[in-house]
Structures are given as C-alpha cells and as structure tokens.
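Before the break, one more example. Copy the sequence into your notebook; we will annotate it together after we see the structure.
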Amino acid sequence: MNVATAIATYLDQLAVERGLAENTLLAYARDLRAYARHLERRQVDALEDVTHDHVTAFLEAERRAGRTPATIGRRLTSARGLHRWALAESLVIADPTTDVSGPRKLRKLPGTLTVPEVERLLSAASLTTPLGLRDRALLEFAYATGVRASEAVATNVGDLDEEPGLLRVSGKGDVERWVPVGKHAARAVERWLAGGRRLLPATRGAEPALFLNVRGRRLSRMGFWLVIRRYARLAGIDRPVSPHSLRHSFATHLLEGGADLRVVQELLGHADLATTQIYTQVDRTYLAEVHRTFHPRERKRALAGRTG
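Here is what the structure looks like once it is written out:
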C-alpha cells in the first residue's frame, strides 16, 4: 500500500474505532506527515518497502534537526503505531520498528535552590511578630528535615523529641521514620512555640498541630505554599519556588556535601532507592568545579595559574 494512503487510512481508523481526541489525532497526523516526507526523500513509496534503517535514519534526522527527545520519542510511537496496524491488517509482512529504540529520556532534576538562596529565603522572615516566628520556624524546619509539604503541616507538637533532636514522621503508607531536626531549626521552632504559637487562639484549645494559621487552626498545604511564595519574592528569588523546592534542596545539598545515598533515602522516606537517585544527577558545572577544586593535578594547575 502507498505510504500516504496507509497513513490516511490509519488516521481514519484511529478517529472512528479508538475515538481519540481531536488534538491527539492532529499530533499523530503531524508526526506521520513528517515520517512520510522522510520516506519520500528516500524514494520509498510503498509501506512494505520501509526497512529498519529507514526508521532509524528518520529518528537521526529528527535529532539533527534539533527535536527534543520527547518529540522524537512521540514520532517513533506514531510510526510504530502505523506499522503495527499495517501488520495486523496483513498489509505488510513485517514491522520495521520492532527493534528500534527511542532516545533515552533524561528525568528532569527537581528544581533546587542554591545554598545562598536558601539562606536569603530563611532570613527573609521577621522574628518580631507571631506569624513571622511561625514562618521562620516552618521554613527552617522544612529545609532541615526534608519532609514533604503534607508531612510538615501534619506534624504535631508531640512528634518532636527534643532531647535527641529528632522528629517522628508518618509518611506515605503510614510508614514511620525518624528525622534529625538540626539545631537551627530546633531553635526556630522553640522561638515559635514560646513567643508565637501560644498567642494564637487555638493554643487555648486542643489543636495539636505544630504550625497554625492566623485563626489558630492547622496550617494547610496551600497555606505553606503561600508562605514560601511570599518569602521567595522577598528574598529576590525570581523563579518558581514551592514547598517541594526545600525538600529537593535538602536532598541535593546533603549529597553534594558527601552524604551517603541510602541515608538520604531513609531521611526522605523513599521506599525505592531509584527514586532518590534522581538527586545524584548533579549539575555538570558543579561536578567540574569539584574536580578542579579537589583533584590533585587540577589543584596544582590552578595554583600555578594564580602565581604565574
């Protein structure tokens, strides 16, 4: 069957039998038109004449054209769907996409803050008002423990074990873990408990939450998000910052400082080590800087350059 005819028939089948949304059909059509143009340039007119090499050459051409791995992967999926359909309909005797691998998709590193940015964020909260004390304690607490936003707002006063400086966290699946709080966060929490929390109305009742809103009720996840957005703006951080940014920064900074990956896994409450390993994809610039700073030969060369 002619390639153009096969594509038109396949798209009709997708629309009628699978009931795909219009935008999805348009995406398939764009991908397959690009595929058809590639085959036409190589003088391949019939679908049964397409080979493995034609498909891989198409992907390589897309890569050279600057397409992203996601786009190339989607175009391979579209081409694979066409050939699998043709094979199922007995229009061809083989699928040339069978052993073709798409581009490796790199997981995006979660957004992290630099250490100076974290310092600016933490110091932006005022220590002269009850809510300022709360906000400073909340930010210090989140960065020191690396807890999820939901875990931070779910923390009760009784979850803190002050003597060893540990926090009992009930994470996903009600799996309990203990996380160090750190002296800076512990001091900030103490100031909040002594000089801020007791002034809010709920402290006269039975609200056990560590972090309260202005009405004296448990702070919500949205409330936490609004707090961090406000202080990110005050700190002059001109990119999106969320409660999860502090969790990501906690993990990244620990690993950059030499912490063991499995220890970080335990602190984050990850069931699977592979989830934690995303934080090992440290920025290449940082890796290069570490190499220049600590490798003996590189360090000698840097010193020679300064004294030459």
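Confidence is low (pLDDT under 50) at residues 282-286. The longest helix spans residues 22-41. Try to locate both features in your own notes.
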